[in-house]
Amino acid sequence: KYADSYDMTNTEQYRPVYHHTPAYGWMNDPNGMFYKDGVWNLYYQYNPYGSQWENMTWGHSTSKDLLHWEFQGEAVEPDVWGTIFSGSAVVDHNNTAGFGNGTVVAMYTSAGENQTQSLAYSTDNGKTFTKYEGNPIITSNTPDFRDPHMFWNEDIKKWNMILAEGQHMNIYSSDDLKAWKLESQFGAEYGNHSGVWECPDLMKLRVRGTDKYKWMLICNINPGGPFGGSATQYFVGDFDGKKFTCETAPEVTRWMDYGKDHYATVTFDNAPNGRHVAIAWMSNWQYANQVPIKQYRSCNSIPRDLDLYEYEGNTYCGVTPSPELTAARPKKSTKTLSESCEVVVTLKGSATITLYNDKGEQVVMTYDDKIRTFTMDRTKSGLKDFSDDFAAVTTAPVHGKMTHLRLFIDKSSIEAFDAEGRMAMTNLVFPTKPYNKIIVKGKGKYAVYNLK
Ligand code: FRU
Question: Is 29 an active-site residue?
């Protein structure tokens, strides 16, 4: 129903405590994320008029700690060029675009008759945006031509931008954020192509424990994920400001997360201390529109700091819960499971961790130290009949011995990490009553930190 007033109170049992959700309406991809003056700004694909995908608008929320978010409403609204699809934002410290020093410049896909790229800028730190009069700035007739991700490349002292076009990525450069030169294309022969390539990102990351830097290209793909539907693949290599050269063979596919609910993952611009902080949309296009929630739909993952690490001669993406999560822990841990908490399991070998309630609903997680895998079984986790694709067992390879498993539980989601950042798995769950018990069998001990 269309309405101008909404019930803004937190009424639903599945609404998380330390994850972002819009107050009402539908949400998909994170968009235009940037940090400035102590505030993390998160925009997202947003339908303010209903809790299914439609009327794409950029919604806006802000946070000072990456865990608690304030809903700010609509930031960029549809116009004559189309609805507002995914994109990015940068802080233009040196006024390269001519909109003023420190202006926030956003580029998004205008989804009209064609998919074209448009600019909007904000001189009030992202609260309100003015559309650029020269829109659209990049046009094309290709049906899938979208999700521009801009960043400042200090190596060449220019802006770069990466955009998904069909089954490859286009890479551009610019001096002023308005005129973009197509430099190269990447990916037609690389990685997984069982779905549409979307929501790219490109960044320079340090290889852990070394002085080496490499570049990582993120490519979200739907469908084609390891357990069906949406997922995030990445490529490691080199980038000279024009061309991305992948260091792995064309047939190699790398997944950033081995759950079913990790998509459209991109990073914040201008994050402090050179950090690369990623947030994923915590759902899957297979059932995102059907999950058993009414007032709003979809939440985002916890923030994760990205880096690279070497294992058996290969370089992989490290995915570590952002330090803000550790800072949010209370001084004392407990043994009692709560609806919103972090469980840390100290492992001395294989172990099975079961979360359950008195309705017989359970999530079973197993770390197998011999074959080095981590598995999560949500086939008996609670509500699941809203989609045939929901019940699933997801399995991840673990690179090296896992000594600390970190589980982030927040009403309707479980995110599992090797504390060293060498395994990540993100899955939704809909227990009809909260899981209030935990058993750890095998070589593991646990501690629960309640998170508020
Ligand atoms: C990815 C995506 C993007 C697009 C947006 C539309 O989930 O399909 O490619 O810009 O969603 O909402």
Answer: yes
What is the residue extent of each domain of the chain?
A: 3-321, 329-450
Which protein residues are within 6 Å of ligand 1, measured from CB?
28-29, 45, 56, 85-86, 109, 146-147, 198-199, 264
Catalytic residue among 29, 92, 201, 305: 29
Nearest to residue 60, comparing CAs of 39, 31, 89?
31
What separation in Å is there between the alpha carbon of 27 and the centre of ligand 1?
11
pLDDT of residue 7: 72
Q: Which CATH number does the domain 329-450 belong to among 1.10.1240.10, 3.40.50.2000, 2.40.170.20, 2.60.120.560?
A: 2.60.120.560
Which pairing describes strands 57-63 and 70-76: parallel, antiparallel, or unpaired?
Answer: antiparallel
The angle formed by the CA atoms of residues 15, 19 and 20, to the nearest 5 degrees, is 85
Under 8 Å between Cβ of 91 and 34: yes
Ligand 1: which atom is nearest the Cα of residue 87?
10
What tokens does 286 get? 């297979």
Query: What is the rounded CA–CA span in Å between residue 328 and residue 411?
Result: 17
Mean pLDDT by 10 residues, the chain (452 residues): 66 94 96 98 96 97 98 97 98 98 98 97 98 98 97 98 98 98 98 98 98 98 98 98 98 98 98 98 98 94 98 98 98 98 98 98 98 98 98 98 98 98 98 98 98 96
Report the distance separating Cα 204 and Cα 312, nearest Å.
22
Choosing from 26, 27, 29 the residue with most ligand 1 atoms within 8 A of its CB, the one to mutate for a pocket test is 29
CA distance linking residue 8 with residue 18, whole number of Å: 17
Q: How far is the CA of 29 from the centre of ligand 1 (A)?
A: 7
Rounded to the nearest whole angstrom, what is the distance from the C-alpha of residue 321 to the centroid of ligand 1? 25
CA separation for the pair 15, 12 (Å, rounded):
6
For domain 3-321, which architecture applies? 5 Propeller (2.115)
CB atoms within 10 A of CB 181: 12
412, two tokens: 């309707």
CA of 330 to the centre of ligand 1 (A): 37
CB atoms closer than 10 angstroms to residue 177 = 24
The token pair at 210 is 């070394």
Give the closest residue to 290 by CA, choosing from 383, 362, 223.
Answer: 383
pLDDT at 2: 55
- Start-to-end Cα distance in the chain: 33
